[in-house]
Amino acid sequence: MEPLQKLIHDTEEKLKKTVDSTLREFSEIRTGRANPSIVEGIMVECYGTHMPMKQVGAISVPEPRLIAIHPWDQSNIQAIEKAILKSELGIMPVNDGKQIRIAIPTLTKERIEELKKILHKLAEQGRVSVRTVRRDSITAVDKLESSKQITEDAKFKGHDDIQKLTEKYTKKIDELLVTKEKELV
Question: What is the pTM of this model?
Answer without folding.
Answer: 0.69
